[in-house]
Amino acid sequence: MIRLLTKLVRNRVAQLMMVFSIALVTIGAGDTTSPTERFSSIGHKMMCVCSCGQILLECNHVGCPDSDRMIHELRAQVAAGGTDTSVFNWFIAKYGPTVLAAPIRGGFDNAAWIIPVVVFVLAILGTALLIRRWKGRHMVAAVGGPSLPHASLPNDDVRERIRRETEF
């Protein structure tokens, strides 16, 4: 019993260490120091507002009336030295929230990040529960035998008549 408990605790600790190490790596993934890298990072998180549906820095819409202006504004905002959030907020104030390729984490936008995960987890749990209920029904039917009373089962005379009538 103690061995099993020790093994379980050891597994949980290993899992927690793995989760924390992944979290540490992904938290540091967004830190860019050079203005060029920062410009590219922010520009790839925004959409062009010309209705082409492309990322701002990848807009190849010929004669796009908006991408050049937005790119110049982005360069100016990055050069001003504001945080990524302040740059995003400036663009949201000017062009609206549709300028973002993905919602910023914080406030009501957290729902856009949390709800899909919650729905997925609930769907998995619901499916597991449904399978467990179906499996439980099958086991009860197999243990309990047929649901018809024994007297209603065909006897040997009825079986013989059925066999004769179905022969060719």
Explain what this protein looks like in three dimensions:
This protein has 168 residues and is mainly alpha-helical. The protein folds into three domains: 1-31; 33-104, Helicase, Ruva Protein, domain 3; 112-166, no CATH class. It has six helices and no strands. It has helices spanning 2-27, 35-43, 67-80, 84-95, 110-144, 156-166. The chain is elongated and about 95 Å long.
Shape: elongated
Q: How many strands appear in the DSSP assignment?
A: 0
The CATH class name of the largest domain reads: Mainly Alpha
Name the poorly predicted regions. Answer: none
Measure the end-to-end span: 66 Å
Structural class: mainly alpha
Order of helices and strands: HHHHHH
As for the CATH topology of the largest domain, it is Helicase, Ruva Protein, domain 3
* Overall domain count: 3
How does the major sheet shape up?
none
Cα Rg: 32 Å
Strand content: under 5%
Average of pLDDT: 80
CATH superfamily of the largest domain: Cytochrome C biogenesis protein
* Number of DSSP helical runs: 6
Which properties best describe this structure?
168 residues; mainly alpha; Helicase, Ruva Protein, domain 3; 3 domains
Note the topology.
Layout: H1 2-27, H2 35-43, H3 67-80, H4 84-95, H5 110-144, H6 156-166
